[in-house]
Write a structure and sequence with these properties.
The chain is built from ten helices and ten strands. The protein is of the alpha/beta class. A hairpin with a 2-residue loop joins β9 and β10. The longest helix is centred in the N-terminal third of the chain and has 15 residues. It is globular, with a radius of gyration of 21 Å.
């Protein structure tokens, strides 16, 4: 929230036997930030096939505070069965589906085709979101465009996660750009959002909690530099994710709506780029958040012999 975030979809790993206690801890933590909009995802991070209790815990989580079904087919020993299970559960519960998918550099290992088919088969058009999709960056442009049109026709949104994808990708013999082809997706009518995944862990060791920073990374990684593309990047951290999560946070100021806004220092001749602006504060549902004040500098002690 201090970085201006007003809503989030939070993936709670449901694999461990104590996962429902972890879910309850999230609910308790969120109670201390009233007004912050959060969707909790029952997330099968490490697969479902051959993992006793995971599916039953997902059902229990959805009976409780979880609102979204989350899957990660590439970690499952049977990815196709995983896709059918989570898509079927989302359809059964009338819930959105959010997949972590295609986090890799090899298009030959892509699961996008079967995942798109699962979304269509279970009637989840407009309710499915695919995160990462970094194999698209390693595909030839024509293949990527064909895949983008399939995603569009299936009503699937894509979330790029530069802070994680840049760190994990490009480690093989043929390095990839790493971040999904945002320009190709947008040109073919796919809703594309930006998000952060983890903060300061093995998957994302360097990641300030600022979506403006994420947009800056995407600008460089995805060659998005024109004024129109820069505006689209701002949409990717505001309007598009608000649509994906069904957030009540308005995309523009309206009388009677929650007073949610962020502001940064204005560009100057020495700092012309909008992405280099310094965050000055935000209002989330009427509550002011400001950056921590820097301690005043003091004169260093003079060392004497």
């Amino acid at each position: 929230m201090d970085g201006g975030t007003a809503a989030a979809r939070i993936h709670v790993e449901i694999d461990a036997p104590d996962a429902l206690d972890v879910l309850a801890a999230h609910v308790e933590a969120l109670a201390h930030v009233p007004g912050f909009e959060a969707q909790l995802v029952a997330f099968a991070q490490n697969g479902i096939t051959g993992e006793p209790g995971v599916l039953s815990r997902m059902r229990a989580a959805l009976d409780g505070p979880a609102q979204v079904v989350g899957g990660c087919p590439y970690t499952d020993r049977d990815p196709l069965r995983h896709l059918d299970t989570v898509a079927g559960l989302a359809a059964e519960r009338g819930a959105p589906l959010d997949l972590h998918i295609d986090l890799g550099d090899d298009p030959a290992e892509s699961l996008l085709g079967p995942a798109i088919e699962a979304v269509a088969r279970h009637g989840l058009s407009g309710r499915a979101t695919f995160g990462h999709v970094s194999t698209l960056a390693a595909m030839p442009r024509r293949q990527a465009a064909d895949t983008a049109r399939l995603l569009r026709d299936a009503g699937i949104a894509v979330v790029a996660i530069p802070t994680t994808d840049l760190w994990l990708s490009g480690r093989g013999d043929v390095p990839s750009r790493g971040v999904t082809r945002m320009a190709v997706l947008r040109a073919n009518g796919v809703d594309v959002a930006l998000a952060s995944n983890n903060h300061v862990n093995a998957f994302t060791p360097i990641s300030p909690a600022s979506l403006l920073h994420v947009a800056q990374l995407a600008s460089v990684a995805c060659h998005l530099g024109s004024p129109e593309e820069q505006r689209a990047l701002l949409d990717a951290v505001t309007r598009v994710p608000a649509r994906i999560v069904g957030s009540a946070v308005p995309d523009a100021p309206r009388i009677g709506a929650p007073a949610t806004s962020c502001w940064w220092t204005r560009p100057t001749r020495s700092r012309p780029s909008g992405w280099r602006r310094r965050w000055r504060g935000s209002v989330v549902r009427g509550k002011l958040h400001e950056p921590a004040r820097r301690r005043p500098r003091t004169e260093p002690e003079r060392w004497t012999r």
